[in-house]
Amino acid sequence: MRVPLSWLREYVDLPAGETGRDVQAKLVAAGLEVETVEQLGAGLKGPLVVGQVLAIEELEGFKKPIRYCQVDVGRANGTGEPQNIVCGARNFRVGDKVVVVLPGAELPGGFAISARKTYGKVSEGMICSASELGMSDDHDGIIVLPPEHEAGSDAIELLELVDEVLDIAVTPDRGYCLSMRGIARETAIAYELPLRDPALLDVPAPNSHGYPVKVADPIGCDRFTARTVTGLDPEAHSPIWLQRRLQKAGMRPVSLAVDITNYVMLELGQPLHAYDRTRINGAIGVRRAEPGEKLTTLDGTQRVLDGEDLVITDESGPIGLAGVMGGANTEIADATADPGTGQVVGTTEVVIEAAHFAPVSVARTARRHKLSSEASRRFERGVDPQAASAAAQRTVDLLVLLAGGTAEVGVTEIIAPSAPHTITLPADHPDKVAGVRYGRETVVRRLQQIGCDVYGADDLTVTVPSWRPDLTDPNDLAEEVIRLEGYENLPSTLPLPPAGRGLTERQRLHRRVGRALAGAGYVEALNYPFIGEEVLDQFGLAADDPRRDVVRLVNPLSDAEPALRTTLLPGLLGALRRNHGRGEHDLALFETGLVFRATGDEPPAAVLPVDRRPTDEQIAALDAALPHQPRRAAAVLAGDREQAGWWGKGTPVSWADAVEAGRIVAREAGVELIVRQDQQDPWHPGRCAALLALVDGEEILVGNAGELHPRVTKALGLPERTCAMEIELDRLERAGTGRVEAPHVSTFPVATQDVALVVGASVPAAEVETALREGAGELLESLRLFDVFTGEQLGEGKKSLAYALRFRALDRTLTAEEIAASRDAAVAVAADRTGATLRGA
């Protein structure tokens, strides 16, 4: 919201020497975000005067049309003689009043003016455009003034070129500040000065003679005021003061009727719309659109309407999107000359609409049609419903004053029954929230300053003003008291945390996992926890897959990602795709974080108190309302694990590297994973491993790893043979032994024995490994699979698994007999459980 200081002074008698910077400091202290204070006319020096064009000579022989003009500037040049000025604009003629800058003056930006020879003539100054004076970005032509202004008079004062404009970033909860009325109220409170409320007007009572209006949806439109003005002069133009206020506020003057509605909207915060009465067929209506109905809006775009859109109608159909934008078929017609008679024709009768529409309905319509307007911005944030009648009256008064119109006696006003919002709070509630003693008198005074009616002694009954729909509960009222008393006056109090707790075991595991993966060469990539359901389709998840039961956000950051993630892989794979697209082809990324799994049994969340610590029961109830949030770790890989060079060929990543990433994570929890073949989307069915762990003697699935399915890599635009791993840390923590203990270092030598076992091709290597461990006994220090072989010499359906077994005792050097006995026992158990035979035996 751009607020000209000269306009603000109409409502608040600010001290004469008060500058825009001073007002900025006061408003910032009151909680408003005043981003900048623009100095209009900075560097502008006169003489800048009104001139009248006496003669125009067209200069020939140049690439563009050039005119040599004689301009009367009165006594402003000291002689009274006409000024000779060269000008290229063609939007003026002899007799027009223009803005002339004379030699010796300086325009904004350090542009000094002097007499100089150009196009073969001496130009004694310049005829100015709006852009050259810093009034707007309009380069189409020079400024043509109304004829009543005297030649030689000061144009700086006439055009109000010197001013200060405060640019305020209005937060969504302060919609009332999208108006001069709202900013003036905040300024008056900050300076402890009275406010001249522009909405305090004498408004005639509604009667049966007004323009007919039918509201079919009183929830979407709870107030509709209609007024009619006839006899408008189609040639009437907006006066300079009106145009300048619109320009300073960041709006472009269009025509008198439109400019007046925009002016009143800026003044009172109530969006209005003016209809050409001759273009309306029958009564005005308010209803929901029929799906598929079409409307051409004022921007010239034909829009297909949705059944949730609230529309303004007449007997021919929709004529406007309620609270967003009017329709082109009833817009105010520009004044034009009739080709036959030469008489100027245009809109002479208008119907003024001042209505109040539901904020959610307007916001959804504006978002649905990608059509944000000044009106929709205000309705979305909350408009004072009781200002509609005053805004309509103010518009009528200006049309009568500036366009020579006549206000009809008919007044239409449709109001849905409603009661003022009332809040009860203890008088010391703001004290408890802020930790400062304000006292009842201060609380009552501050609430009355913002427009509340306050009754009561120890317990206050507060009636919220109609322009503050953001005040809904006691804490909102406490915030108003605190901000007006000054945030800078709040004491700085550090909370006292309980001592000696440190990190939980869950947090320690989380950190250990991150360090271990980083040490293994993975790079951490943090992603937003939001997904769209399209990526779940690209993963090929079945309709009943629990990962499709997403938690949807009420107000998502992006419509493309409206839900919370149920897996870490979409974000990681997106990061991998972006890096690959920027030339990084050998990638290993990881992330640790929460996923969100809804059960459907979560109760509604309660609002917790802020004046005291919530009870354990309240915290437990809040936790119960949350979806299940398990902590996970995931990793993705693409390209080469080992790069090629003079030392030899590179090694591309494979499903085994993804499995090893899972083992790295599990080791940090003190868990030895059991790896088995699995089929799980989005992994390749033949290259997918289930990662299992023992919890209370029972195997549970803790994650999956392997190579992604080719259709998934194609759908997501990933490199071929991309691999991924995802594992649940909470389950690993339950399966783990707690803190990982450092291994015992023995001073006795190790004995290594290799065995190659032939088993069926369908026998998992994990089963063979488990059998070997159990059979070898306590002397086995470690076991590693170092070779897998298949070939004709083994026979069809057979494979050879070669293991390296390391034996060591803690208290002695092992004998050859002890080593052989342990080795044979391990082979015997493997043969008994898996049917393994020693290769070559």
TrEMBL record:
Keywords: Aminoacyl-tRNA synthetase, ATP-binding, Cytoplasm, Ligase, Magnesium, Metal-binding, Nucleotide-binding, Protein biosynthesis, RNA-binding, tRNA-binding. The lineage of its organism: Bacteria, Bacillati, Actinomycetota, Actinomycetes, Kitasatosporales. Tetramer of two alpha and two beta subunits. It catalyses: tRNA(Phe) + L-phenylalanine + ATP = L-phenylalanyl-tRNA(Phe) + AMP + diphosphate + H(+). The keyword Zinc does not apply. This is Phenylalanine--tRNA ligase beta subunit. Binds 2 magnesium ions per tetramer. Residues 746-839 form the FDX-ACB domain. Belongs to the phenylalanyl-tRNA synthetase beta subunit family. Type 1 subfamily. Its main location: cytoplasm. The keyword Nucleotide-binding applies. Gene3D superfamilies: 3.30.56.10, Bira Bifunctional Protein, Domain 2 (3.30.930.10), Ferrodoxin-fold anticodon-binding domain (3.30.70.380), Nucleic acid-binding proteins (2.40.50.140), Phenylalanyl-trna Synthetase, Chain B, domain 3 (3.50.40.10). Its EC number is 6.1.1.20. One of its GO terms (molecular function) is ligase activity. Its cofactor is Mg(2+). It is found in: Cytoplasm. Residues 42-156 form the TRNA-binding domain. It is an enzyme of class 6 (ligase). Pfam families: B3_4, B5, FDX-ACB, tRNA_bind, tRNA_synthFbeta.
